Amino acid sequence: MSWTTENKGDAVKAEKIAHAEEIDFGKEQEEWNKQYAKKFLKKKDKRARLVLGIWGKPKTGKTGLSLDFPDKPIYVLDWDRGVESTWREHHDSTDRIQIHCPINRDKRNVIDINKSEKDSLMFINMVRQRIQEGEDPVFVFDGVDTYFNSCLLKVNNDPTKVTKVMPWQYGERNKTFNFMMEAVYSLNCDVIYITHEKEQYIDNTVVGFVPAWQDWGGKLEQEIRCYSREDKGELKYFAKLIGSRTKGNLVGTTWTTRDGKPPNVVWHGITELRDGAI
Prior knowledge:
By secondary structure, the chain is α/β, with parallel strands linked by helices.
């Protein structure tokens, strides 16, 4: 055999080996790749989503901020039963803002957690349908901590009795809570979660306050704390941007959301929040 023949044979052999190493991922993978490319292009065309957590003491402007989007439809899942008064008094009961309290009670006047959970999910799914039809709303989950506490009824359905609960039994409560939080999170729109603050302890001493997210707050893109302070006889309300993955340069900013003495009280809100720029 000549050197030329050997070289040609080696070249053919190398070509076969290279071809054999190619993997055919199949038509299903090829179709998935196309769908992924389309989804990625859609992501590039959209602004960063609002996944905002607002927390603080009662009556410090949390609900006011969550409803302060004058050009958008707003849906509120109201577990705290405190949104309706703000809607009536400050938004003229507009149809643009729809509020739903899903709490159902049984004959004992105890929350029926199963019916209330189902009612909540039906409301979320209704909004999901409207988004698919072209709406671009803001969805508000008001009363995260109230809902979390109610989820304990999955473990003990009679709150009038003190029952010893084993650590493993809390799994049912946590699963119920996390599922609802995720259902809201998965909506393809801006979402806002509202909760109260709770005391933070070190060695049985109160050292500050933290939001009652129940270890869920890591998914939030933005976080605002609301508080009030009396200054020379004037009660002022403030909001501080605690964190933001989307506008890090604004973190630490404090806005005066409401000030003035009665009856000349003025609501300012947060311009950057209304514009979706936090």
